[in-house]
Amino acid sequence: MKLPYIQAQSQKGLIGIDSRMGQYDIQSKSADIEVHTTPTSISAPTPMPELYMNQDRMWAAFNGGKPEAFINRIYSQMPSIAQQGIAKIVEKGNQMGDLRIKQNPFPDMAFREISQGPPQVQVFGAATAHNVDIEFKINRPDVKVNVGSVDIQVQTHKPEINYQRGDVSVYMKQYPSVNFSVAEMDVRV
User: How far is CA 26 from the centre of its chain?
Assistant: First the structure.
């Protein structure tokens, strides 16, 4: 007699999982920017240059100058001219009184007096190339700087975020099962 044997077949269960990821939708507006600029301003007013000319010495050399200066120039020379005249008189007196001189001194003195002429009085000023005084004055510019500015205003916007949830689906794709089968059975007795 043969013994029967049992055959078992099993089938695994299969679980199916479908998932869909969540999605973000982000929208953002660009920032609003306002810029206000104040430009730098510079002012530099410059006074006109000044020219000073003194021509008194030039006119004194040409025509004697102003009457006061002309008269003062002549009178200021008079003391030295008087001293020179007195010195000449003393010298003449010394020559006349000198007994060592054997000849007559009067003709020589007269000849010197005629050839010498009047005293040298400086009526006009000295004639030189430097008689005109020139002074040129350049004034510094008055520089004022008003520093400008930049005012920046920025308005930001929050982003708009929309989130769509994902999902997960779990299902049985294949159920587990066990099948038993008996192989040939001898039912004869």
Answer: 50
